[in-house]
Design goal:
Layout: E1 2-8, H1 15-28, E2 33-39, H2 40-43, H3 50-67, E3 74-78, H4 83-93, H5 98-102, H6 105-112, H7 119-122, H8 124-134, E4 139-141, H9 147-164, E5 182-184, H10 214-222, H11 241-246, H12 252-264, H13 269-295, H14 298-327
Parallel strand pairs: 1-2, 2-3, 4-5
Helix pairs in contact: 3-13, 4-8, 4-14, 8-9, 10-13
This protein binds adenosine-5'-diphosphate (ADP) and tryptophan.
Length: 330
């Protein structure tokens, strides 16, 4: 099993990234060959300052290691350090129908929010497909918001194989040069809501950042939007943003107990927020301390990233050579 996934370095990772994606990376790292990268090229359309870009990119690498991705078990690298990905992007772009690109929600959502859309954002799913296809990953753990991108990746692989590989069988996926990947989405944490109740997202000002200072984390949690049901009245956990986040930290027994306190009345939202703050620190304080240590040892981190890029380039180079041969540019 070859597993691949990435996180964009467009901001500081938050608990949505952890529960929706990074936690699965960590669980999976011993179950197959893992390729985990920092998607800095994907962040270019949002980050327009060189120093910030460098800092955020290294930051995501630090976060990965601090949270438990072990360079002994998997490849950790920065996307832009593997130029084969960009070369493959052009080639697969040449077999991708415009109509399919026009259906992609990444640029449409940005447009709907009034953001100016550049070509990088429009081509975003194509680069993502290249990330995946370049190492022939077969399992891609991501949050639900990425499902459409993975469907597009499969479609592109099928189209390329159908066009250039006479032995390709679309039923079995055998006989092509590009592998058809499978998404892996944890349904129960499919979308983690932000402090405003919308999807938590790096650029939406509604995150609980994994590595923010104690003060920032507390402010974010205490600021979660709730309704104004008085303390003594029963509350509906399923209509509460605090509970939607809190339940991610609780096992079944814990969830039942907290649900009981909601429906019984007598506990205010502030108390549930305090409980969430406690659970946050219980879960993440070890990683937060480890990240501080890593910051004192950046040579080690750069070394890990260099090794990861070397392996990814090796695999990516082989796949690219097959692709180039298949379409006759080599
Ligand atoms: P963001 O949306 O915050 O910019 P990314 O796009 O870099 O984050 O996402 C990195 C990974 O985290 C992806 O697999 C994505 O599906 C997952 N993810 C991001 N936000 C959430 C969320 N609110 N809930 C669940 N998973 C999420
Ligand atoms: N697009 C992903 C996101 O926004 C990040 C990403 C880039 C990715 N390339 C990828 C995820 C390849 C999985 C596989 O979350």
């Amino acid at each position: 099993m070859r597993i691949l996934s990435g996180v964009k370095s467009s901001g500081r990772p938050h608990i949505g990234n952890y529960f929706g994606a990074i936690r699965q990376f960590i669980d999976l790292q011993t179950k197959g060959e893992g390729y985990y990268f920092v998607a800095d090229l994907h962040a270019l359309d949002q980050i327009r300052d060189a120093e910030t870009m460098r800092e955020l990119t290294l930051g995501v690498a630090l976060d990965y290691i601090a949270l438990g991705l072990d360079p002994e078990h998997c490849m950790l690298y920065v996307q832009s350090h593997v130029p084969e990905v960009s070369q493959l992007q052009w080639i697969i772009g040449s077999v991708t129908p415009l109509g399919q690109m026009l259906r992609a929600h990444a640029y449409k959502d940005a447009q709907a929010k009034g953001r100016e859309v550049d070509f990088g954002l429009f081509a975003y799913p194509l680069l993502m497909a290249a990330d995946i296809l370049n190492v022939r990953a077969n399992v891609v753990p991501v949050g639900k918001d990425q499902k459409q991108h993975l469907e597009l990746t499969r479609d592109i692989a099928v189209k390329f194989n159908m066009t250039y590989c006479p032995d390709f069988d679309p039923q079995t996926g055998e006989g092509g040069v590009l592998n058809l990947p499978d998404p892996m989405i944890l349904e129960e944490v499919a979308v983690v809501p932000g402090t405003d109740g919308q999807k938590m997202g790096k650029s939406d000002g509604n995150t609980i950042p994994l590595f923010g200072t104690d003060k920032v984390v507390k402010k974010a949690i205490m600021g979660i939007v709730t309704d104004s049901t008085p303390i003594e009245e029963p509350k509906d956990p399923d209509a509460c943003n605090v509970y939607a986040i809190l339940k991610l930290f609780l096992d079944e027994t814990g969830q039942a107990e907290v649900r009981g306190r909601y429906t019984a009345g007598g506990t205010g939202y502030g108390d549930f927020k305090k409980l969430l703050l406690e659970k946050f620190h219980e879960r993440f304080d070890a990683a937060r301390a480890k990240r501080e240590e890593l910051l004192q040892n950046l040579d080690y981190v750069h070394d890990v990233l260099a090794k990861g890029a070397k392996s990814a380039r090796q695999t990516g180079g082989e796949v690219l050579a097959d692709v180039q041969a298949a379409c006759g540019i080599r």
